[in-house]
Amino acid sequence: MELSTVLIITALFLVFRFVQSQRAARTPMPSHGKVADIDNDVIFKALVHAGPAVVDFYATWCGPCRAVAPKVGELSEKYENVRFVSVDVDKLRGVATQFNITAMPTFVIMKDGAEVERVRGADIRALEAGIQKVAA
User: Fold this and answer.
1) Which positions fall inside the Thioredoxin domain (predicted)?
2) Statement: residue 12 has pLDDT above 80
3) Does domain 28-135 have CATH number 3.30.70.3270?
4) pTM (predicted TM-score)
5) Annotated catalytic residue, options 62, 87, 122, 127
6) Are 27 and 88 in contact (CB under 8 A)?
7) Every domain of the chain and the residues it spans
């Protein structure tokens, strides 16, 4: 096989993979449990300033975010007195910047508008431990 043929096949493969990844990135996150997906900063502020809340900062292109979403949904069903909201960091960049979000998923556990704890990554045990602190 000639070198030019190998290069063309390789280029076509890379273009195909890129197109697949872009399609996946545009697919919205499915909702789970009682998690409200927030796309407005005013609504976000209103929801997290009263009582206990868990904020899930995610990105649609983030594999770990997609993997952990069903478990977060289960926690939202279990802890009914805690408000669960999710924020797409690409849509609400100002909110993500305000909270210094540098990795996804990041969970910010709040009570009455104040941050109580922060969990970076898909660590469900650490997340539930933090939730228990504000749910009591």
Assistant:
1) 23-136
2) no
3) no
4) 0.78
5) 62
6) no
7) 28-135
**Angstrom distances, CA of residue 60 to CA of 31, 134, 135:** 12, 28, 28
**Contact yes or no for 46/36 (Cβ under 8 A):** no
Token couple for 101:
């979000």
Task: Please give the pLDDT value at position 109.
Answer: 97
Q: Is the dihedral of CA 89, 74, 130, 115 positive or negative?
A: positive
* Structure tokens belonging to residue 116: 């109580």
* Catalytic residue chosen out of the listed positions 65, 104, 108, 119: 65
Does 65 qualify as catalytic in the annotation?
A: yes
Q: How far is CA 90 from CA 18, 44, 45, 58, 87, in A?
A: 19, 15, 17, 9, 9
| pLDDT, tens only, 51-92 | 999 999 999 999 999 999 999 999 999 999 999 999 999 999
Q: Is the pLDDT of residue 7 over 90?
A: no
Number of C-beta neighbours around residue 85 at 10 A? 20
Decide: helix, strand or coil at residue 48: helix
pLDDT, tens only, 31-48: 678 898 988 888 888 888
